[in-house]
Amino acid sequence: MTPKNLVALIARVEDGVVSNLVGKEVLGFMLDEGKDADTIIKEKGLAQVSDDSALLFIIDEVIAQNPAVVEQIKIRQT
Question: What would the DSSP string read from start to end of 31-65?
């Protein structure tokens, strides 16, 4: 691993691209695989999603795919 690659990883954590915890995971992959942070983040889909519309889309999909769980939650809340 080069100092430049380590600096890039730290920048991704500071920029909020990945969390501190995921940053540690990326560091492990960097050491094991010899790839840079951006490549690992992209290949493994580790970037944080902070776009509200993207999150709402994912939530809608999860709800649509789990109607039985949704009903269980509705029953518990009444």
Answer: HHH---HHHHHHHHT-PPP--HHHHHHHHHHHHHH
